[in-house]
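Run: sequence + phosphoenolpyruvate -> complex structure.
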Amino acid sequence: MIIVLRPHSSQSAIDEVIAEVSKLGYEPAPIHGATQTVIAAIGDERTHQNLESLSAFPQVESVLRVQKRYKLTSRESRPNDTIVDVDGVKIGGGHFALMAGPCSVESEEQLLSTARAVKAAGATILRGGAYKPRTSPYEFQGLGKEGLRLLELAKRETGLKIVTEVLSERDVERVAATADILQIGARNAQNYQLLIECAKSGKAILLKRGMSERIEEWLLAAEYILAHGNPNVLLCERGIRTFETYTRNTLDLAAVAIAKKESHLPVIVDPSQGCGRSDLVIALCRGAVAVDADGLIIEVHPNPAEAMSDGQQQVDFAAFEELVASIQPFVAATGRKM
Ligand code: PEP
Ligand code: MN
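>> structure
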Protein backbone atom coordinates (compact mmCIF):
# COMPACT_ATOMS: atom_id res chain seq x y z
CA MET A 1 0.00 0.00 0.00
CA ILE A 2 1.08 3.60 -0.46
CA ILE A 3 0.65 6.10 2.34
CA VAL A 4 0.72 9.72 1.27
CA LEU A 5 1.54 12.17 4.07
CA ARG A 6 0.38 15.77 4.19
CA PRO A 7 2.81 18.42 2.90
CA HIS A 8 5.31 19.71 5.46
CA SER A 9 4.73 16.91 7.99
CA SER A 10 7.33 16.98 10.75
CA GLN A 11 9.96 14.24 10.96
CA SER A 12 8.39 12.96 14.19
CA ALA A 13 4.96 12.74 12.51
CA ILE A 14 6.55 10.81 9.62
CA ASP A 15 8.37 8.49 12.04
CA GLU A 16 5.12 7.81 13.87
CA VAL A 17 3.51 6.49 10.66
CA ILE A 18 6.63 4.48 9.72
CA ALA A 19 6.55 2.81 13.14
CA GLU A 20 2.86 1.95 12.73
CA VAL A 21 3.47 0.48 9.26
CA SER A 22 6.12 -1.89 10.64
CA LYS A 23 3.94 -2.75 13.61
CA LEU A 24 1.25 -3.91 11.18
CA GLY A 25 3.70 -6.27 9.47
CA TYR A 26 4.75 -4.30 6.40
CA GLU A 27 8.22 -3.15 5.48
CA PRO A 28 8.11 0.68 5.30
CA ALA A 29 10.02 2.34 2.43
CA PRO A 30 9.75 6.13 2.76
CA ILE A 31 10.32 8.39 -0.24
CA HIS A 32 11.00 12.01 0.73
CA GLY A 33 9.98 14.73 -1.72
CA ALA A 34 10.62 18.47 -1.39
CA THR A 35 7.37 19.09 0.50
CA GLN A 36 5.74 15.70 0.87
CA THR A 37 6.69 12.21 2.00
CA VAL A 38 5.20 9.02 0.60
CA ILE A 39 5.64 5.68 2.40
CA ALA A 40 5.49 2.48 0.36
CA ALA A 41 4.33 -0.34 2.66
CA ILE A 42 5.78 -3.54 1.23
CA GLY A 43 3.92 -6.76 1.96
CA ASP A 44 0.93 -8.79 0.74
CA GLU A 45 -2.13 -6.59 1.24
CA ARG A 46 -4.43 -9.56 1.05
CA THR A 47 -2.93 -11.40 3.97
CA HIS A 48 -1.78 -8.45 6.10
CA GLN A 49 -4.04 -6.09 7.93
CA ASN A 50 -5.52 -3.30 5.86
CA LEU A 51 -3.67 -0.02 6.32
CA GLU A 52 -6.65 2.17 5.51
CA SER A 53 -7.04 2.82 9.24
CA LEU A 54 -3.84 4.90 9.00
CA SER A 55 -6.03 7.63 7.47
CA ALA A 56 -7.05 8.31 11.07
CA PHE A 57 -3.62 9.93 11.65
CA PRO A 58 -3.95 13.69 11.05
CA GLN A 59 -0.65 13.71 9.11
CA VAL A 60 -1.90 11.07 6.61
CA GLU A 61 -3.48 12.51 3.47
CA SER A 62 -4.45 9.23 1.77
CA VAL A 63 -3.81 5.50 1.73
CA LEU A 64 -3.79 3.78 -1.66
CA ARG A 65 -4.05 0.12 -2.49
CA VAL A 66 -1.65 -1.44 -4.98
CA GLN A 67 -2.89 -5.03 -5.14
CA LYS A 68 -6.33 -6.28 -6.10
CA ARG A 69 -8.44 -7.36 -3.14
CA TYR A 70 -9.36 -10.66 -4.75
CA LYS A 71 -6.62 -13.18 -5.14
CA LEU A 72 -7.93 -16.63 -6.08
CA THR A 73 -10.51 -15.12 -8.45
CA SER A 74 -7.99 -12.99 -10.30
CA ARG A 75 -6.36 -13.85 -13.59
CA GLU A 76 -3.02 -13.00 -12.02
CA SER A 77 -3.34 -16.07 -9.81
CA ARG A 78 -4.44 -18.25 -12.73
CA PRO A 79 -3.78 -16.97 -16.25
CA ASN A 80 -5.70 -19.72 -18.07
CA ASP A 81 -9.48 -19.89 -18.24
CA THR A 82 -11.08 -22.13 -15.66
CA ILE A 83 -13.24 -24.86 -17.15
CA VAL A 84 -16.07 -25.81 -14.83
CA ASP A 85 -17.09 -29.41 -15.42
CA VAL A 86 -20.69 -30.00 -14.42
CA ASP A 87 -20.92 -33.75 -14.48
CA GLY A 88 -19.59 -33.92 -18.04
CA VAL A 89 -20.92 -30.58 -19.30
CA LYS A 90 -17.92 -28.26 -19.61
CA ILE A 91 -18.26 -24.50 -19.24
CA GLY A 92 -15.53 -21.97 -20.01
CA GLY A 93 -12.22 -22.14 -21.87
CA GLY A 94 -13.92 -22.41 -25.27
CA HIS A 95 -16.90 -24.46 -24.07
CA PHE A 96 -20.07 -22.43 -24.45
CA ALA A 97 -23.02 -23.37 -22.20
CA LEU A 98 -26.65 -22.91 -23.03
CA MET A 99 -28.93 -22.94 -19.97
CA ALA A 100 -32.65 -22.47 -20.45
CA GLY A 101 -35.98 -23.09 -18.80
CA PRO A 102 -38.79 -21.33 -17.03
CA CYS A 103 -38.37 -18.57 -14.48
CA SER A 104 -40.33 -20.68 -11.98
CA VAL A 105 -41.17 -24.36 -11.89
CA GLU A 106 -44.98 -24.28 -12.06
CA SER A 107 -46.21 -27.78 -12.93
CA GLU A 108 -45.06 -31.13 -14.29
CA GLU A 109 -46.48 -30.40 -17.72
CA GLN A 110 -44.94 -26.91 -17.86
CA LEU A 111 -41.49 -28.06 -16.76
CA LEU A 112 -41.28 -31.25 -18.77
CA SER A 113 -42.52 -29.74 -22.00
CA THR A 114 -40.01 -26.90 -21.58
CA ALA A 115 -37.18 -29.30 -20.76
CA ARG A 116 -37.88 -31.32 -23.91
CA ALA A 117 -38.12 -28.19 -26.08
CA VAL A 118 -34.92 -26.55 -24.82
CA LYS A 119 -33.03 -29.81 -25.09
CA ALA A 120 -34.20 -30.29 -28.68
CA ALA A 121 -33.03 -26.76 -29.46
CA GLY A 122 -29.55 -27.40 -28.04
CA ALA A 123 -29.57 -26.51 -24.34
CA THR A 124 -27.64 -28.78 -22.00
CA ILE A 125 -28.69 -27.27 -18.67
CA LEU A 126 -32.25 -26.73 -17.46
CA ARG A 127 -33.04 -23.71 -15.31
CA GLY A 128 -36.14 -23.29 -13.15
CA GLY A 129 -36.75 -21.79 -9.74
CA ALA A 130 -38.34 -23.96 -7.06
CA TYR A 131 -37.70 -21.26 -4.44
CA LYS A 132 -38.42 -17.80 -5.79
CA PRO A 133 -37.23 -14.51 -4.32
CA ARG A 134 -40.22 -12.23 -5.01
CA THR A 135 -40.38 -8.53 -4.29
CA SER A 136 -43.90 -8.88 -2.89
CA PRO A 137 -44.74 -11.49 -0.26
CA TYR A 138 -48.14 -11.91 -1.96
CA GLU A 139 -46.64 -13.11 -5.25
CA PHE A 140 -45.97 -16.74 -6.19
CA GLN A 141 -43.08 -17.93 -4.01
CA GLY A 142 -42.31 -21.13 -5.94
CA LEU A 143 -43.36 -24.74 -5.38
CA GLY A 144 -40.50 -25.44 -2.98
CA LYS A 145 -39.88 -29.16 -2.39
CA GLU A 146 -42.43 -30.10 -5.06
CA GLY A 147 -40.51 -27.92 -7.51
CA LEU A 148 -37.31 -29.80 -6.69
CA ARG A 149 -39.09 -33.10 -7.26
CA LEU A 150 -40.20 -31.92 -10.71
CA LEU A 151 -36.67 -30.77 -11.56
CA GLU A 152 -35.42 -34.20 -10.55
CA LEU A 153 -38.01 -35.77 -12.84
CA ALA A 154 -36.99 -33.54 -15.76
CA LYS A 155 -33.35 -34.39 -15.16
CA ARG A 156 -34.08 -38.11 -15.17
CA GLU A 157 -36.16 -37.93 -18.31
CA THR A 158 -33.98 -35.61 -20.41
CA GLY A 159 -30.47 -35.95 -18.94
CA LEU A 160 -30.25 -32.15 -18.73
CA LYS A 161 -28.23 -30.79 -15.83
CA ILE A 162 -30.14 -28.62 -13.38
CA VAL A 163 -29.46 -25.07 -12.22
CA THR A 164 -31.81 -23.78 -9.55
CA GLU A 165 -31.73 -21.04 -6.94
CA VAL A 166 -31.03 -21.53 -3.27
CA LEU A 167 -32.47 -18.75 -1.15
CA SER A 168 -31.31 -19.62 2.30
CA GLU A 169 -28.61 -21.48 4.22
CA ARG A 170 -31.39 -23.66 5.60
CA ASP A 171 -32.14 -25.06 2.11
CA VAL A 172 -28.63 -25.65 0.79
CA GLU A 173 -28.51 -29.38 1.50
CA ARG A 174 -31.96 -30.02 0.11
CA VAL A 175 -31.41 -27.97 -3.07
CA ALA A 176 -27.94 -29.45 -3.59
CA ALA A 177 -29.47 -32.94 -3.58
CA THR A 178 -31.23 -32.07 -6.87
CA ALA A 179 -29.19 -29.27 -8.40
CA ASP A 180 -26.02 -29.71 -10.42
CA ILE A 181 -25.45 -25.97 -10.17
CA LEU A 182 -26.63 -23.85 -7.23
CA GLN A 183 -27.85 -20.43 -8.30
CA ILE A 184 -27.18 -17.53 -5.98
CA GLY A 185 -29.65 -14.83 -6.94
CA ALA A 186 -29.05 -11.10 -7.29
CA ARG A 187 -30.78 -10.46 -3.98
CA ASN A 188 -28.39 -12.78 -2.17
CA ALA A 189 -25.28 -11.84 -4.11
CA GLN A 190 -23.53 -10.59 -0.98
CA ASN A 191 -25.08 -12.95 1.56
CA TYR A 192 -21.68 -14.26 2.61
CA GLN A 193 -22.94 -16.95 5.01
CA LEU A 194 -25.06 -18.38 2.19
CA LEU A 195 -22.08 -18.24 -0.18
CA ILE A 196 -19.96 -20.15 2.33
CA GLU A 197 -22.62 -22.82 2.87
CA CYS A 198 -23.03 -23.25 -0.88
CA ALA A 199 -19.25 -23.44 -1.32
CA LYS A 200 -19.11 -26.28 1.21
CA SER A 201 -21.72 -28.28 -0.72
CA GLY A 202 -19.07 -28.87 -3.41
CA LYS A 203 -21.59 -28.10 -6.17
CA ALA A 204 -20.83 -25.66 -8.98
CA ILE A 205 -22.24 -22.21 -8.21
CA LEU A 206 -23.82 -19.69 -10.58
CA LEU A 207 -23.17 -16.40 -8.82
CA LYS A 208 -25.41 -13.60 -10.03
CA ARG A 209 -24.20 -10.05 -9.80
CA GLY A 210 -26.25 -8.02 -7.33
CA MET A 211 -28.47 -5.34 -8.79
CA SER A 212 -26.31 -2.55 -7.43
CA GLU A 213 -23.10 -4.47 -6.96
CA ARG A 214 -19.79 -3.16 -8.22
CA ILE A 215 -17.64 -5.49 -10.30
CA GLU A 216 -15.05 -5.59 -7.51
CA GLU A 217 -17.72 -6.63 -4.99
CA TRP A 218 -18.99 -9.32 -7.37
CA LEU A 219 -15.47 -10.72 -7.77
CA LEU A 220 -14.97 -10.57 -4.00
CA ALA A 221 -18.20 -12.54 -3.52
CA ALA A 222 -16.72 -15.18 -5.85
CA GLU A 223 -13.54 -15.00 -3.76
CA TYR A 224 -15.58 -16.11 -0.70
CA ILE A 225 -16.55 -19.29 -2.53
CA LEU A 226 -13.04 -19.98 -3.82
CA ALA A 227 -11.52 -19.20 -0.43
CA HIS A 228 -13.85 -21.82 1.06
CA GLY A 229 -12.42 -24.49 -1.18
CA ASN A 230 -14.85 -24.51 -4.09
CA PRO A 231 -13.27 -23.51 -7.42
CA ASN A 232 -16.39 -24.17 -9.53
CA VAL A 233 -17.85 -20.70 -9.80
CA LEU A 234 -19.71 -19.26 -12.78
CA LEU A 235 -20.04 -15.49 -12.68
CA CYS A 236 -23.40 -14.31 -14.00
CA GLU A 237 -24.18 -10.79 -15.22
CA ARG A 238 -27.93 -10.17 -15.03
CA GLY A 239 -28.28 -6.43 -15.35
CA ILE A 240 -27.94 -3.66 -12.84
CA ARG A 241 -30.40 -1.05 -11.67
CA THR A 242 -30.04 2.29 -13.41
CA PHE A 243 -32.26 5.31 -14.16
CA GLU A 244 -33.52 3.69 -17.39
CA THR A 245 -37.19 2.67 -17.51
CA TYR A 246 -37.44 1.13 -21.01
CA THR A 247 -35.76 -1.97 -19.59
CA ARG A 248 -36.18 -3.71 -16.22
CA ASN A 249 -32.42 -3.64 -15.65
CA THR A 250 -29.47 -2.41 -17.69
CA LEU A 251 -27.51 -5.41 -18.96
CA ASP A 252 -23.89 -4.48 -18.38
CA LEU A 253 -21.93 -6.13 -21.17
CA ALA A 254 -18.86 -4.06 -20.32
CA ALA A 255 -18.88 -5.85 -16.95
CA VAL A 256 -18.72 -9.16 -18.81
CA ALA A 257 -15.67 -8.01 -20.75
CA ILE A 258 -14.07 -6.70 -17.54
CA ALA A 259 -14.84 -9.88 -15.58
CA LYS A 260 -13.23 -11.91 -18.39
CA LYS A 261 -10.09 -9.76 -18.17
CA GLU A 262 -9.93 -9.69 -14.38
CA SER A 263 -10.84 -13.28 -13.69
CA HIS A 264 -10.24 -16.77 -15.04
CA LEU A 265 -13.77 -17.84 -14.08
CA PRO A 266 -16.40 -18.46 -16.78
CA VAL A 267 -18.91 -15.63 -17.23
CA ILE A 268 -22.54 -16.35 -18.06
CA VAL A 269 -25.07 -13.76 -19.21
CA ASP A 270 -28.73 -13.67 -18.20
CA PRO A 271 -30.41 -11.46 -20.80
CA SER A 272 -33.89 -12.25 -19.44
CA GLN A 273 -33.48 -10.56 -16.04
CA GLY A 274 -30.99 -8.30 -17.85
CA CYS A 275 -33.63 -6.39 -19.79
CA GLY A 276 -36.99 -7.81 -18.67
CA ARG A 277 -38.35 -7.87 -22.24
CA SER A 278 -38.72 -10.96 -24.39
CA ASP A 279 -38.39 -8.87 -27.59
CA LEU A 280 -34.79 -7.90 -26.71
CA VAL A 281 -33.50 -11.27 -25.55
CA ILE A 282 -32.15 -12.44 -28.93
CA ALA A 283 -30.22 -9.22 -29.57
CA LEU A 284 -28.69 -9.28 -26.10
CA CYS A 285 -27.69 -12.93 -26.51
CA ARG A 286 -25.74 -12.02 -29.63
CA GLY A 287 -24.13 -9.14 -27.79
CA ALA A 288 -23.18 -11.42 -24.91
CA VAL A 289 -21.51 -13.92 -27.23
CA ALA A 290 -19.69 -11.09 -29.00
CA VAL A 291 -18.14 -9.90 -25.72
CA ASP A 292 -16.88 -13.45 -25.08
CA ALA A 293 -19.39 -14.67 -22.53
CA ASP A 294 -19.01 -18.39 -21.79
CA GLY A 295 -22.70 -19.12 -21.72
CA LEU A 296 -26.25 -17.88 -21.51
CA ILE A 297 -29.10 -18.53 -19.10
CA ILE A 298 -32.43 -17.81 -20.74
CA GLU A 299 -36.01 -17.91 -19.48
CA VAL A 300 -38.27 -20.05 -21.67
CA HIS A 301 -41.95 -20.81 -21.02
CA PRO A 302 -44.53 -22.79 -23.03
CA ASN A 303 -46.93 -19.84 -22.76
CA PRO A 304 -45.30 -16.72 -21.33
CA ALA A 305 -48.66 -14.93 -21.05
CA GLU A 306 -49.67 -17.47 -18.39
CA ALA A 307 -46.38 -17.56 -16.48
CA MET A 308 -46.57 -17.24 -12.70
CA SER A 309 -43.47 -15.03 -12.67
CA ASP A 310 -41.59 -12.90 -15.18
CA GLY A 311 -43.98 -13.56 -18.09
CA GLN A 312 -42.91 -10.37 -19.87
CA GLN A 313 -39.35 -11.57 -20.34
CA GLN A 314 -39.77 -15.27 -21.09
CA VAL A 315 -39.53 -16.47 -24.68
CA ASP A 316 -41.68 -19.29 -26.06
CA PHE A 317 -40.35 -22.47 -27.68
CA ALA A 318 -40.36 -21.10 -31.23
CA ALA A 319 -38.50 -17.94 -30.20
CA PHE A 320 -35.96 -20.03 -28.30
CA GLU A 321 -35.30 -22.17 -31.34
CA GLU A 322 -34.84 -19.04 -33.44
CA LEU A 323 -32.55 -17.61 -30.77
CA VAL A 324 -30.27 -20.65 -30.79
CA ALA A 325 -30.03 -20.55 -34.59
CA SER A 326 -29.24 -16.85 -34.48
CA ILE A 327 -26.41 -17.12 -31.94
CA GLN A 328 -24.74 -20.17 -33.48
CA PRO A 329 -22.67 -18.19 -36.01
CA PHE A 330 -21.57 -15.83 -33.23
CA VAL A 331 -20.49 -18.72 -31.03
CA ALA A 332 -18.54 -20.26 -33.92
CA ALA A 333 -17.00 -16.88 -34.82
CA THR A 334 -15.63 -16.49 -31.29
CA GLY A 335 -14.03 -19.93 -31.57
CA ARG A 336 -16.29 -21.69 -29.10
CA LYS A 337 -18.07 -25.02 -29.02
CA MET A 338 -21.73 -25.10 -28.02
C1 PEP B 1 -34.20 -15.65 -11.82
O1 PEP B 1 -33.23 -16.16 -12.40
O2 PEP B 1 -35.39 -15.93 -12.07
C2 PEP B 1 -33.93 -14.59 -10.82
C3 PEP B 1 -34.78 -14.33 -9.84
O3 PEP B 1 -32.75 -13.98 -11.05
P1 PEP B 1 -32.04 -12.74 -10.31
O4 PEP B 1 -31.60 -13.24 -8.99
O5 PEP B 1 -30.94 -12.40 -11.25
O6 PEP B 1 -33.07 -11.63 -10.22
MN1 MN C 1 -36.99 -14.72 -13.44
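>> summary
The first strand starts at residue 2 and ends at 5. The chain has ten helices and 14 strands.
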